[in-house]
């Protein structure tokens, strides 16, 4: 799979005050990709496209180079204390992606170039919590590995966190271009997680991401580079043949991975809200995603939002099967949660 390059680039003039901003603007200009100034990375106006769907597709191929001015990090409970803001948006087209609703009208890819300021802020948060460990999640609003060949930010963040006795980093990816990260001096402070799924799910619902065998191969290399490793299997879906396919997935994974001491799994079943369903049906009108309300149980989430989850018996069956299969192939792995 060819690494992503944008069709269109915007930059905030202030980004040119930072080495990464200057470098990126010069690089895209030399590649003859249209590069335009924008007053704010929060509100890029004039994106091309006739229809909302065109605009969405073009935005997903548009890069915005900006400066993160508000350095108040969002919380990222329960698996980390803070979200570290390196980028937002993603060029992938996963039909079920939560960014569809969370990024709203800003689906473009945004890279922040003031990394030193972001790291200073992270250090402050670490000091505030000392002697407790402080964990930072880098994939709350983007897939940082997918754009690493452009920004190089993740490598710097991994090395920064390697120097923090009380700082930890975690992120998740569906991209396999991990080569540039294998030599980073991580000191075991970064948990490198891959999002994986049954062939059926990858094939029908994850266009624009790395093929599954590439992700598995990348995970093997990351394990060999000594990173603490993790897998998120999400969304787990119930479809004809799901048990065979999830078992085959775990078997393939165990064949490729070396013996690792520190391995985690996070398991999330498929769910949706009505607002997500509306957006998905607009943007991926031919999707085969099963969002039949009649076959779901309603579950109240925060802010009064209703999530449509699988009925209890089906959830129990999935949970039991996934736990048993993971412990067969990875007896020493820790399953952090099933939801
Ligand atoms: Fe969303 Fe991740 Fe897919 Fe990107 S790779 S579209 S962030 S689910």
UniProtKB/TrEMBL annotation:
Keywords, comma-separated and alphabetical: Lyase
Keyword Lyase: yes
Pfam families documented for this protein: SPL
E.C. number(s) listed in UniProt: 4.1.99.14
GO MF annotation: an example: lyase activity
NCBIfam families tied to this protein: photo_TT_lyase (TIGR04070)
Protein name: Spore photoproduct lyase
Organism annotation: Thermoactinomyces vulgaris
Lineage: Bacteria, Bacillati, Bacillota, Bacilli, Bacillales
């Amino acid at each position: 799979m060819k690494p992503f390059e944008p069709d269109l680039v915007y930059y905030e003039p202030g980004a040119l005050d930072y080495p990464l901003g200057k470098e990126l603007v010069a690089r895209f200009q030399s590649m003859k990709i249209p590069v335009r100034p924008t007053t704010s990375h929060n509100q890029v106006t004039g994106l091309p496209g006739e229809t909302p769907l065109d605009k969405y597709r073009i935005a997903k191929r548009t890069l915005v180079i900006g400066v993160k001015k508000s350095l108040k990090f969002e919380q990222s409970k329960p698996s980390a204390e803070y979200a570290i803001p390196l980028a937002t948006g993603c060029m992938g087209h996963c039909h079920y992606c939560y960014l569809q609703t969370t990024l709203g009208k800003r689906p473009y890819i945004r890279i922040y170039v003031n990394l030193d300021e972001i790291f200073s802020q992270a250090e402050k948060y670490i000091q505030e919590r000392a002697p407790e460990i402080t964990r930072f999640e880098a994939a709350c609003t983007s897939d940082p590995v997918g754009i690493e060949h452009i920004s190089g930010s993740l490598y710097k963040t991994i090395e920064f966190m390697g120097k923090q006795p009380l700082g930890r980093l975690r992120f998740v990816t569906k991209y396999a271009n991990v080569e540039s990260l294998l030599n980073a001096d991580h000191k075991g402070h970064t948990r490198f997680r891959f999002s994986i799924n049954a062939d059926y799910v990858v094939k029908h619902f994850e266009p624009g991401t790395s093929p599954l065998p590439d992700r598995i191969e990348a995970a093997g290399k990351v394990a060999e580079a000594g990173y603490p490793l993790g897998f998120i299997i999400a969304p787990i879906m119930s479809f004809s043949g799901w048990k065979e396919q999830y078992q085959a997935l775990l078997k393939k994974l165990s064949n490729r991975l070396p013996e690792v001491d520190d391995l985690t799994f996070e398991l999330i079943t498929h769910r949706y809200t009505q607002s997500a369903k509306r957006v998905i049906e607009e943007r991926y009108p031919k999707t085969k995603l099963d969002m039949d309300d009649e076959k779901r149980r309603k579950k109240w989430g925060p802010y009064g939002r209703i999530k449509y989850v699988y009925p209890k018996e089906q959830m129990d069956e999935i949970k039991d099967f996934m736990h048993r299969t993971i412990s067969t192939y990875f007896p020493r792995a820790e399953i952090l949660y099933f939801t």
